[in-house]
From TrEMBL:
Sorted UniProt keywords: Disulfide bond, Signal
Keyword Metal-binding: no
Protein name, as recorded: Pectinesterase inhibitor domain-containing protein
UniProt similarity note: Belongs to the PMEI family.
InterPro entries in the cross-refs: Invertase/methylesterase_inhib, PCW_Enzyme_Inhibitor, Pectinesterase_inhib_dom, PMEI_plant
Signal peptide: none
GO function terms (MF aspect): pectinesterase inhibitor activity
SUPFAM superfamilies, sorted: Plant invertase/pectin methylesterase inhibitor (SSF101148)
This protein's record includes keyword Signal: yes
Length: 104
């Protein structure tokens, strides 16, 4: 996406790309923090980190809504990242559930 910022000639599209670069940086930071939470067995925090990353990518995705000139790779990248966040969240939620089970 950083390359698209440099190469596009459309100022509106450039602004959208710049916003997405910031959103992706925030999402990656949230995923890295979530990974740290998993290491610490703080699975609820990991789930929240994945959700935060998902929201960041959704904000990026919204920048392109209704536009016909968005490269296919941008749409696929957003979809891939959102799926990744969902998988992280599901695993974190499952681990949280297991941690909350009390012995019978």
């Amino acid at each position: 996406m950083k390359g698209a910022v440099r190469t596009t000639t459309d100022p509106t599209l450039r602004t959208s790309y710049e916003t997405c670069v910031r959103d992706y940086e925030g999402a990656i930071k949230a995923i890295e923090e979530a990974q740290g939470s998993v290491t610490s067995k703080a699975y609820q925090l990991a789930s929240q980190g994945a959700a935060k990353a998902f929201v960041s990518i959704s904000v990026c995705e919204a920048q392109f809504e209704g536009r016909d000139d968005v490269p296919v790779y941008v749409t696929k990248l957003n979809l891939f990242f959102k799926r990744f966040c969902n998988i992280d969240r599901v695993f974190s939620d499952v681990l949280t559930s297991f941690m909350n089970l009390s012995p019978a």
